[in-house]
C-alpha cells in the first residue's frame, strides 16, 4: 500500500524519513478503523445479547444508544488508575501494553482486498500472525503476576494455560490450509480459493474450519471458554486489579483479537474478499460491481455475530472440560486431518481443491 | 528437484525396532493392568526379532543410505548384535529387581527399547547430526530410568547429577561439532575426512574443535578427569539401571568415538592422540588406586570401570585399524563382564536390601557356593587373570599400543592391571575366607536367574578358553 | 549506516542488554522475562538476515510456548533469591578470571583473522519472492529426513520421560476421577425409573367410626 506516496515523499525527503512516514500512515490507516470497530463491537454485543434476552440493551446515549461507546470511553479515560500495594509497578504498567501491541501488530499482514491492499505482503504471513498473537499471553501472565493478587494470578494461570493449549490445535488447523494452498502468504491463500462457494476451504477442510473457530473462541477467552474471567469464582480474572484506561486497554485488545480471529477465519476458510456468487451464472454478473472488501467485511460481521451468539446461548465450560476438549478432542482430530490432507495431496486426490 | 527415495533396506532393523517400540508404548497403557508382565515379554520378543533381522541381513560391505547419514558395515552389525544380546540379558535381570524394589512399570521397558534404538543410531551414524540425535535419544531415556524410583532420594540425586553433567557434556560436544562444521563445512564423516585430507582446513580451528569433542566424549565415557559423575550415578541409581548404564551404552559410546576420531578425523590424529594419552593415563591410575578403598561394590565397579575406559583408549591411541579392532574387542568384552558383575548384584537384591556392599558378600562360599564361584569367575575375568577372557582383552590392547610405539604406556597399563587385581581379589577373599555375617542361604528370587547368571559367567571362562572367537570378531570387522 | 544496519545494531544491543540483565537480575520471574526479550530481539536479527521462518518459529515456539511454561513453574516456586545468590561475590573474582581467560583463548582462535568478514564469503541474498520456508523444507524432508525422524523420536522419548516422572495415579479413595465418556453416555433411563403404582383410592370410613 502507498508505494507511490513513498516514492513521492522520497523525492524531497531523506529516504528513511519517507519510509517511516509511510509506515506511520499505513499503521494509522489500519489501526484507526480497527479501534473504531472495537468500540462499536462492544455496543453491538450489548445490543445483540440484549435482544436475545428480550431486553432493549443500551438505548440512552445518543439516538438509540449509538453514542454509548463514546460515553464508555470518556468514563474510562477519566477514571483513576489504582495501583495495588506491593505490586510490581513496572510490569504492572507494561502488561496492558504487551496485550494490545501484538493484537494490533498482527493486522500488518491481513489483506483487505485483491491487488495487495495489505500493509506488508510477506511470504510467511500465517506464521507471522501466529507468532505475534502468541506474545499476547505474556500480557496476561504478567498482569496476573504483577498485580500481587490471588484472583488475578489464578485468572492468569487459567488464561495462559488455555491459550497455549488451544494454540496447538489452531496451528495444526492452519497447517492443513497451508498444505492445500501451498503458500503461507495470505493473499495467495485467498487466491487459491477462487472458483465458487464450494471451492472455499471451509468445505474441503470442514473439520478444520470448526476446529479453528472453536480454538479462536478459546484463544480470545470468550464464552463458553471464559473461565479466565470466571466472575462467579475469581471476580474478573487477570485484569481484576486494573481500572480506568489500563483496564480499557485489555478490553480493546480482547475485542481487537476477536475481530482479528474473524478476519483470519474469513481469509483462511471463507474465501476472503471473493464473492460468494462466483461461478453462479445469473448472480455473478449481477453482483460484480460489489467491491471485494465489502464481501470480506460481511463475512467478518457474520463471524463476529457468531461470537456474540455463542456468548448469549452457551453455558460456561468447566475448566477440566476445556482442557479435555483442547487436548483430547481437537488436537487428535487436527493431527488425523493433517495426515489425511497429506495423503490426499500426495495421491493427487485433491478433488475439491485443484 | 532430483530426489531419489532412499533405500530403506539397510535400516530395516532400526525401522522395525522403532515401529514395534511405538506400538508397545501404546499397547502398554492398555494391557498393563490386565497382564502384568506382557510388556516385559514383548520387549524381549522385540529384541529377538531385531537381532534376527540383523543376523539374517548381516553384511560385510559398507552401505550408506539416507543421503549418507546412515551407514551399515560389519562393524555396525557386530556392535548392534552385541547391544541386542546384552540388552536381552539386562532386561532379564532387571524384571525381578524392579518387582523387588517396587517400581516395576511398563515405561522402564519402553524407555529401555528407545535407548537401544538410540544406541543403534549412534553405531550407524554417518554424520554429526544423526550422531548427536542418537546420543540424545539414548541419554534422555537413561536419565529417566535413573530417576524412575521416585521414593529413593539417592536415585533422584544420581539422576540429577547425571542429567546436569550429561547436558554439560552435550554442550561441549555440540560446540565442538559446530566448530568442526565451521572448519570443514561438512557434516558427513567421509566428506569431512576428505576435506581435511585435501588440506583445505584451518588447522587451529580444527584442533580447537577436536579438543571440545574429545572432552565431550570423555565426559560421556567417564574418563578421568571428567569422571566425577560416574561413581555417584552408578551408586545412586537402582542396580538394574546401573546394569543398564554400565554395559550397552559403553558399546555405543565406543562406536561414536571410533566414527568420529577414526572415520571423520583421521587427519587430525596428531591433535586427538595426545589428548587420549592424557585421559588414558589418568583413567588407568584412578581406576587402579581409588577402588581399593571402596566398600560398596557398585562404587568399586564404577571406579574399576574408569580403569577399563583407560584400557579401551589404549587401542584408539594406536590409531591404526588393528588398534581400533583391539579397542572394539576390549569394549565388547568389558560390556559383557559388566553384564555379569552388575547382573549378579541385581539378581541378589531383595526388597529393602540392595546387596551391593562388599560386606554383603562375606562368606558367600558358605551361603551359596555356586554363586560364589560365579562371582569368582567375574572378578578373575575383570582382573585379567588367564584363562578368563578379560585377560585376552587386556593382552590385545597392550600389544597394539606397544606396536604403535608407546612402550611406556604399555608398562603403565600392566602396572595398573596388577594393582587393580588387588581389589578384585579382595572380593574373592571376602567371599571365601571371611566368616559370613548371616548364615541364611542367598539365592536369586527366581530359579531361572541362577541359570542365566551362570550362563553369562561361565561364558567368560569358555570364551577365555577359545579367545580367538571374540578377537577375530573385532579384527575381521575392522582390519 | 543504512536503515537496516541501524535496526540490526539496535536489536543486537537489546539482545545483549537483555542477556546481561537476565543473569544479573534478582527476581527469577524478571529474569525469565528478560530472556523473552532477548529471544524476541534475536528473532528480529534473524528476520534481518532473511531467515524469516526461523525468526518467526523462534517466537512461536520459544517465546509463545516454552518460556510460558517456564514462567509457570518459576512463578509457582517460591525461590529464595538471597540464598540462591550466596557465594556469588566470593566466587566472582575466580569466575571473572576464568571467563576472561576462556574469552581470550577463544578470541585468538575464533577471532576476526579466521572468521572475519574478509575470510568468509558473504551469504547470497535471496530475491524478495523466494520463500525461505521452502528452502528449509526441501532439504529437511529429503536429504535430512533421517535426522528429522530421529528428532521426532527424541521428542517422543521426552514426552514419555516427562509423563513417566510426573504421572501419579492416586487411588480413588484419595482423589475422585471423572469418566467423561460415561458422563456423556448417561441417559435419563439410567438415573430414574418411572414406576407405575396403583393409585391409593381413599376407602370410605367404616360405619362404626362414623358414628363416633
Describe this structure in words.
The complex is a heterotrimer of chains A (354), B (479) and C (212). By secondary structure, chain A is mainly alpha-helical. Chain A has helices at residues 3-9, 15-52, 68-77, 89-105, 125-133, 136-146, 150-181, 186-191, 206-219, 231-234, 244-269, 283-286, 292-313, 319-346. Chain B has one domain (9-478). In chain B, helix 3 (74-100) runs antiparallel to helix 11 (248-264) and helix 13 (297-317) packs antiparallel against helix 18 (407-433). Chain B is an all-alpha fold. Chain B is 75% helix and 1% strand. A two-stranded antiparallel ribbon of chain B has the order 1-2. The mean pLDDT of chain B is 90. Chain C has helices at residues 3-24, 28-48, 52-76, 81-84, 88-110, 112-115, 132-141, 145-166, 180-185, 188-191, 207-211. In chain C, helix 1 (3-24) packs antiparallel against helix 2 (28-48). Chain C starts with a helix and ends with a helix. Chain B binds chain C through residues 1, 3, 6, 11, 18, 22, 25, 66-67, 69-70, 105, 107, 110-111, 114, 117-118, 121, 127, 129-130, 133-134, 136-137, 140-141, 143-144, 147-148, 150, 179, 182, 202, 204-205, 208, and chain C through 109-110, 114-115, 138, 142-147, 150-151, 153-154, 156-158, 160-161, 163-165.
Assembly classification = heterotrimer
Major sheet summary line of chain A: none
N-to-C span of chain B: 40 Å
Intertermini distance of chain A: 30 Å
**Average pLDDT, all residues of chain B:** 90
Gross morphology of chain A is: globular
Indicate how many domains the architecture of chain B comprises: 1
The portion of residues forming beta strands of chain A comes to: under 5%
- Radius of gyration over C-alpha positions of chain B, nearest whole angstrom: 22 Å
Q: Overall 3D geometry of chain B?
A: globular
Helix content of chain A: 55-70%
Largest sheet of chain B: 2 strands, antiparallel
Alpha-beta classification of chain A: mainly alpha
Whole-number mean pLDDT of chain A: 84
User: Could you give the order of the helices and strands of chain B?
Assistant: HHEEHHHHHHHHHHHHHHHHHH
Poorly predicted residue ranges of chain A? none
The strands making up the biggest β-sheet of chain B line up spatially as: 1-2
How are helices and strands ordered from N to C of chain A? HHHHHHHHHHHHHH
